[in-house]
Amino acid sequence: MSFTQEYQKKLTTADEAVKVVKSGDRLEYGWCVTTPVALDEALAKRMPDLENIQIHGGIVMRPLAITQIENPADHFTWNSWHMGGLERKWINEGFSFYAPIRYSELPSYYRDCLPGTDVVMMQVAPMDAHGYFNFGPSASHTAAMLEKAKCVIVEVNENMPRCLGGFEEGIHISKVDMIVEGNNPAIDELGGGGAATEVDQAVARLIVDQIPDGACLQLGIGGMPNAVGSLIAESDLKDLGVHTEMYVDAFVDIAKAGKITGAHKNIDRYRQTYAFAAGTKKLYDYLNDNPECMSAPVDYTNSIATISSIDNFISINNAVDVDLYGQISAESSGIRQISGAGGQLDFVMGAYLSKGGKSFVCLSSTFTNKKGETFSRILPTLHNGSVVTDTRSNAHYIVTEYGMANLKGKSTWERAEALINIAHPDFRDQLIKDAETAHIWRRSNK
Q1: Residues 6+ apart with CB under 8 A from 139
Q2: Interval 366-400: pLDDT, tens
Q3: Longest Cα pair distance anywhere in the chain, in angstroms?
Q4: Which structural domains are found in the chain, ordered by start?
Q5: Annotation says 331 is catalytic
Q6: Is 343 annotated as a binding residue?
């Protein structure tokens, strides 16, 4: 039987495909831009007749039909590997929960820890001449997720970019149970968190000054990493490389400015390596069939051993709060889940262990709430309930618009002094008093 014949044999409608789902099943809903569309709409019609469905997914970028039914918590639970804005809203509605992970370990969870998946439904790129459906910009943990699934349903989207890699970036038709052809919607787009502010630009300038020619970059999502990317694109830096968890629009700008060659990478030379990508159409068009870009599983991209083997590795990520001990929370504020652990700790550790490498965790010195009240992001201790994403022993460079603090090798009083020096001036005196109360302040400091 030819691949085309097998395709036609397995082709069905979304409404027919979701009939395989039964109460008590464990479902996989793809990851980021591969979250299903037609299958989601079809399942929403069935969901009122189902109960105790456990669904895993993450970084959902558009409203899901299954969440629009009456009392979704009575029928399913959404378990997120990484929270986005929609998923934070669903927490308050009672059917969404964060699954704490070390992202680099996620493939091994599927292979070694989690119970088997009953049904996988996800978007893929059209089948190629060799019978493979490409995962688009979401290699991540997808291959591992599919290995033990009882039923695999793929939703073909002609707009899904075909992202090249070399391993674990697609699935063969022989391992697919059902094929659904959706309505080919545009791939979900993710902005960069708005235009860079003056604070973002001030932080970016401090970091770009620390990047040497030939460095290998990892950028997180958000205003500050994007501001760094913009400055790099306008700089005189050359022969940069990319090895990152998430591929974002900033990398496209840097590449098109001629700054990326990958010529000095110790591994995957000349290739931009990433676990998943999300951004604007500009990004998806750039990744599509681009042999320079390497889509790879997250247990490879986020491996500390892999990261640390690359010389001059520069890791740039955001944080919510940092306390005077150097503990970094990048995923929650108190008990309010904002994001997820992702791979930040892996890159913080891997970059430091790299020859010539540096890890930068950036944040604005303050934030202002909806009431117009301003608070310091550098705290005496993290808020009660805040999750420590990066432990104090692993923190390297902390950066605000007021400067940069290298915490490696510093004792508690030295850390307190360095962090207060980059806090907003309006909060420094109070932070000194707090440090004195905590016995981490020398009177000779000031």
Answers
A1: 163, 165, 168, 169, 275, 276, 295, 296, 297, 298
A2: 999 999 999 999 999 999 999 999 999 999 999 99
A3: 81
A4: 3-181 (3.40.1080.10), 198-437 (3.40.1080.20)
A5: no
A6: yes
- Was 222 annotated as part of a binding site? yes
In this predicted model, which residue has the larger pLDDT, 82 or 341? 82
Q: What is the band of 166 on the pLDDT scale with cuts at 50, 70, 90? A: confident
220 is in an annotated binding site: yes
Question: pLDDT tens-digit profile of 287-330?
Answer: 999 999 999 999 999 999 999 999 999 999 999 999 999 999 98
Alpha-carbon distance of 57 to 112, in angstroms, equals 18
Residue from 41, 168, 169, 245 carrying the catalytic annotation: 245
Do residues 149 and 116 make contact, with C-beta atoms less than 8 angstroms apart?
yes
168-188 average pLDDT score = 96
Q: How far apart are CA 245 and CA 340, in angstroms?
A: 13
CA distance linking residue 237 with residue 257, whole number of Å: 10
Q: How far apart are CA 353 and CA 3, in angstroms?
A: 47
Helix (H) or strand (E) holding 153: strand 151-156
